[in-house]
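Researcher: Let's run the pair from yesterday's discussion. Sequence first, then C-alpha cells, for each.
Model: Starting with the first of the pair.
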Amino acid sequence: MPRLRHDGRVFTLVVSILVVVSALPVLLVVALAGAPGTVLLATVLAALPVVPVVMVFLWLDRYEPEPRSLLLLGLGWGAAVAVVAALLLQGIGGLFLPVTDAGSLAVVAPVTEEAVKGAFLVALLWWRRAELDGLLDGVVYAGMVGTGFAFTENILYLAAAYDGTDGMGPGGTVALTSTFVVRCLASPFAHPLFTAFTGIGVGLAVTSRHGVVRLAAPVAGYLLAVLCHGLWNASTLAGLGGFAVVYLVIMAPALLLVGALAFWARTSERQMLGRALGDAAARGLLPATDIGWVVDLRARRLARRYARETGGKEAEDRMRAYQQAAIELGFLHHRYLRGTAPADFASRGGAYVARIGAVRPSVQFPGQVVPTR
C-alpha cells in the first residue's frame, strides 16, 4: 500500500510539473498565432464547446466520480503536454523523414498526437491503476485529454483562419465563422472520440484476467484511434464532398457506437454494483438494506436530500461519504470476484469497510424501502 500511494503522489507531481512546464511554450505558440485581439477571440470561441463536452463525460462518470484533480490533469495534459510533445515529435520526425503536407496531415499527425494523448492513459494504468475500474473510466479520462487537446488546437486554427494564414483564403470573419462551425460546432467530439478508443483499450486491460489482453487491448485501441484520426484528417484533403462522406459514413457511426458503449457501461455498472455489494453484504461488510440507496442514482439523490433537510449540510456530507465509500467497495469487490483484484486489495478494502463502519451510525435514510421509479 505505501508503495502504491507513493506511486500515486509521484504520478500527480510529475504530470503537474509537465503541464506547468508545457504551458509556457503553448502560451508562446498561441501568442504568436496572431494579434492579441485575434488570439483572444479565438480563445473565447475555442472555449465554447469545452464545457458541454466536459459535462457529457461528467454525466457518464456519475456512479463513481473520478477525482477532480485527475480529470483536470487530463485536461491540462491534452491542452499543454500533448500539444508540445506532438509538435516536437512532428518537427524532429520531419528532419529525418521528409513527408508531404498531405502525408503529415493524414499519417504523421494521427500517429504522434494519439501517442502523446494516450500516454496519459498509459501512465494512469501504470501508476494510478486503482483509479481505473473499467471501460467507462478509460473513456472519461480519454475524453478529458482529447477535449484539452482540441481546445488548444482550435485556438490555433481559428486564429489562422481569421488572419488568413491557414492557406484557405484571405481570412476575416467569413473564414473564422466557417472554421468555427466545422471544428467547434460540427465536430467538437473529434479528438475526444479518437482518444476514446485508446481509453477503451486501457479500460479492457484493467478488467481482463488474461495477460495477452492486458497487453494487446491498449495497443489495439491506439491503432484504432490512429486509423480514425487519419481518416478524419485525410477527408479534409478531398474537399467538402470527401469530408461529408467520412463524417456521415464513418465518424458519426463511430461516435454513436462509442457513445452507446459508454452508456451501456454506465447502465451495467448499476447491475454490477448490486451484485458485488450483495456479496459484500453477505460477508457482513455493510448492511444489505443500504444497497439500493447506493446503487440507484435517483435513490442516492433522495437520500442526500433527506439528510440535508433533516440534518443540514453536515448530515448531507456524511451521507455522501457513506455512499462513496460503499461505491468504492463495490467496484473493488467486483474486481475481487472477477479475479482481477489489485495488489493492495486487502488494505484498500479494509479502509473502505472502516469508513463505512465509522459513518453508518450517523447516517439516516428516509426508510429502508428504496423508492420505486
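Model: Moving on to the second of the pair.
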Amino acid sequence: MRILHVSDCYLPRLGGIEVQVADLVRAQRAAGHEVRVATATAGAPMDGVERIVAPLPYELPVHPRGTGRLLALMRGYAPDVVHVHAGAVSPFAWMGVRAAVRAGLPVVVTVHSMWDVVTRTVYRALNAVYRWNRWGLVGTAVSEAAARPIRRVAGPRVPVRVVSNGLDVAAWRPAGPRSRTEPDAPVHVVAVGRLAPRKQPLRLLKLLEETRRRVPASVRLRATIVGDGPARASMERYLRARGMGWVSMPGRYPRERIRELLESADVFVAPAPRESFGLAALEARTAGVPVVARTQSGVADFVRPGKEGLLGRDFTELAACLARLAGDAALRESIAEHNRATEPVQCSWPAVLAGFDRCYALAVERTRLRRSG
C-alpha cells in the first residue's frame, strides 16, 4: 500500500508525536508498504520526507499555502491513503485533511492528544462552518480516554477507532528475573516525561511529598524524575525549599538510559490526569515495573488495578496508591512478576499495524461509497 503521512511536527524534533510517527513509518516500511511523510518541520533532507516549510518566527510548523502545496504533492504521489497526525491544535495537519478530501483520497486522522473543553468547543465551531464530520473521515485515537471526547464532537458520522501507540515490546522486556535488592534498600520511585506546565510537574512533587508523609518512617524512599522543560527551575526551587534531597532530577535521558533506570525502579508514577496515552508508563509496565496512574488517563488502557499497577481518580487516591505500593513489598513484587510474565500485546507493532490496516480499509471503502453516492 502507498501511504502518505501528514504531520505538523516530525524529526529532527523529538516530541512524543514526532517519535511515534517516525517509528510507525519504519514499521510500515519494514512490513512492505511504500511510505512518505509531509511535514512543516524544518530540518535536513531525509529519504521519503517532504518538508513544506515557511520562514515563520520560532520555526512554527505551519505553512500559509499548505493546503495547495499538499494537494499538489498528493496528486503527484497518488497515495492509496492519507494518514494525518494531529495534536490538540494542528493547522498543517488539518490542511492535509482538507487537501486529501479535495483530491478525493481516503483519509485517516489520528488524534494524539486529549481534547479538553476548549478544544472540543473549537472543533464544534469548525464543524458548524465546514461540516468536517461529513467528509468521510476515519478517526483514530491512542486510547479509549482520548477517543471519548472526539466521539462526542464528531458524532456517529465519523467512526473513531482506538489504535494504541506502538512499542518494540521485545526491546523493553527485562533480560531475566530481577535481582533482589537489599531488604533495607530505598524504594525507588521513577517518573519520566517533559517538565511542562500542562503535565502538572509540581503536582508530582507534592504527590511524592504526600507519599513520604503517608509511608512509615522505617520505609526509605528515593525518587528519580527524568526529563527537561520549562518547569524544571520551579521544580528545583520547590525541592530546595521543602528539603526533598531524596528526589533527583538528572535531566533528559535517551531511551537506552531509561531502560537501565527502570531496572532499579520499584514503582513508576504517571500522575497527569489528561495523559492521552502514556508511552513512558507503557515502557515501564513492559519492563516489569508496577505503574501508578490516573483512572481517567490513557494509561488505564494497559494498566488494570491490582494487575499491572494501581489507579487513582484524584490526587488523594493517587497518593494512597503510591503509598500503598511503597509500603507493601509483597504487592510490588506480585505486580512486578505479572508484568514481567505478560506482554502488552495490543501495543506491539504487529497489533498496531494491523489496527491501522483495518482503518485504511475502512477509509478506502467509505471513499468509494462517497464517490458512488
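Researcher: Give me one sentence on the second I can quote.
Model: The mean pLDDT is 95.
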